[in-house]
UniProtKB/TrEMBL annotation:
Source organism of this protein record: Cellulomonas bogoriensis 69B4 = DSM 16987
Protein name as annotated: Iron ABC transporter permease
Family note: Belongs to the binding-protein-dependent transport system permease family. FecCD subfamily.
Chief location bin: membrane
GO biological process: one example: siderophore-iron import into cell
PANTHER family: FERRIC ENTEROBACTIN TRANSPORT SYSTEM PERMEASE PROTEIN (PTHR30472), PETROBACTIN IMPORT SYSTEM PERMEASE PROTEIN YCLN (PTHR30472:SF27)
GO MF annotations, alphabetized: transmembrane transporter activity
Topology of the protein relative to the lipid bilayer: Multi-pass membrane protein
Length: 322
C-alpha cells in the first residue's frame, strides 16, 4: 500500500511540474534540452519555479501532517493539530513581532523567534487543559480554537495599527505561488524534523498511553513531551515563515490513516507523511486549475476540505457518544 501511494504521489509531482500559467510542456522541455539553439527558458522555468514549488509542497505537506499526528498523541485527542490549538497563530504573532522590532533580522533568526512563540502558545494551551475539567473530548479542540482566535485577533489588531495587514495575510494563508529557488530551502529543516519524529516513534507511542504508564515502562515522559513540542513548534514556524498556514491538514491525514492502518506511530508515520504530501499536492493542483490562469491559495482549498472532514469527525464522535 505504501509503495502504491508513493508511485501515485510521484506521478502527481510530475504533473505538478507542467501545470501553471507559464507555457511548459514535456515536448517543449525535451526540445529545450536537445536543441542547442533554444534560449533555455523552459529549463530555467523548470529549475527556478516548478521544481522548487513541487518540492516545497511535498516537504510542507509531509511535515505538517506529522506535526499534527504528534500533537494528537501528546494531547491524547484526535481533534487537535497545530492550527486548532493556537500553535500556528502564535508563530504568526512571533513573525509579526520580530518584523516590528527587528525588521533587518536574518530569516533563520525570524524563524527561531516564531518557533519560540509557537512553543509558548502550545505550552499555554496545555496549561489551560490542565486547569479546565474536560468532561468530553470535544471540549479540547473548542478550547484550542478559542485560544487560537484570541491570539489571531491580537495579531490582526497589531498588524492593523502598524500597516502590516498585507504581510500578515501572506503568513496566515498557505500559498505556494511565491515559491522560487532560493526561497524554499528552509523547508528541508522540516524533512530533518520528520525524520527525528520517525526515529522517536516508539517513544511517542508509549507517551500517548499516559504519564503513569510511560513512567512504569521506564520512559522519560517529560523529555518525550518536550521533544514532541519542539518538533511541532519548529515545523509550524518554518512552514508559516516559508509558505503560510495550512489549516486542518494535521487533523485530516492522521485521522484517516489511523482508521486505515492503526495507531502504532512507527507504522503509521510513513503513511501520514505520504498522505500529507499527496493531499497538499492535489489541493495545490486544484488551486492552480480551478480558476486558471488565476490561483486559489492552497490554504483555502485545504481549509475547505479540512473543515468538512473536521465537522464529520465531530458529528461522528458525537453520534457515538449519544
Amino acid at each position: 500500500m505504501l509503495g502504491v501511494g508513493a508511485v501515485v504521489v510521484a506521478c502527481l509531482g510530475v504533473v505538478s511540474l507542467f501545470v501553471g500559467v507559464g507555457d511548459l510542456t514535456p515536448a517543449g522541455l525535451w526540445s529545450a534540452v536537445t536543441n542547442p539553439d533554444d534560449d533555455g527558458r523552459a529549463v530555467l522555468m523548470l529549475l527556478v519555479s516548478r521544481v522548487p514549488r513541487t518540492v516545497a509542497t511535498l516537504l510542507a505537506g509531509a511535515a505538517v501532517a506529522i506535526a499534527g499526528m504528534i500533537m494528537q498523541i501528546l494531547v491524547r485527542n484526535r481533534f487537535v493539530e497545530p492550527s486548532t490549538v493556537g500553535t500556528t497563530e502564535s508563530a504568526a504573532l512571533g513573525i509579526l513581532t520580530v518584523t516590528l522590532l527587528a525588521p533587518g533580522m536574518p530569516l533563520p533568526a525570524k524563524m527561531g523567534v516564531a518557533a519560540l512563540f509557537a512553543l509558548a502558545g502550545t505550552a499555554l494551551f496545555l496549561r489551560i487543559l490542565q486547569a479546565v475539567p474536560l468532561r468530553s473530548v470535544l471540549v479540547v479542540p473548542l478550547i484550542g480554537i478559542m485560544l487560537g482566535g484570541v491570539i489571531s485577533a491580537v495579531t490582526t489588531f497589531v498588524a492593523y495599527r502598524t500597516d502590516l495587514l498585507q504581510s500578515l495575510g501572506v503568513w496566515m494563508t498557505g500559498d505556494f505561488s511565491g515559491v522560487l529557488r532560493g526561497r524554499y530551502e528552509m523547508l528541508w529543516i522540516t524533512a530533518a524534523l520528520t525524520l527525528v519524529a520517525y526515529l522517536a516513534a516508539d517513544r511517542f507511542t508509549v507517551a500517548g498511553l499516559g504519564e503513569a504508564f510511560s513512567t512504569n515502562l521506564g520512559l522519560g515522559y517529560r523529555a518525550t513531551m518536550t521533544l514532541g513540542l519542539v518538533i511541532v513548534s519548529l515545523v509550524s514556524a518554518v512552514v508559516v515563515v516559508t509558505v503560510g498556514i495550512i489549516p486542518f491538514l494535521g487533523l485530516v491525514v492522521p485521522n484517516v490513516v489511523s482508521l486505515l492502518v492503526g495507531d502504532n506511530v512507527r507504522r503509521t508515520a510513513p503513511f501520514v507523511a505520504l498522505g500529507g504530501a499527496g493531499l497538499v499536492l492535489v489541493c495545490d493542483l486544484v488551486g492552480r486549475t480551478i480558476r486558471y490562469p488565476y490561483e486559489v491559495p492552497v490554504g483555502v482549498v485545504v481549509g475547505v476540505l479540512g473543515a468538512v472532514v473536521f465537522l464529520y469527525l465531530l458529528l461522528r464522535r458525537g453520534s457515538r457518544a449519544a
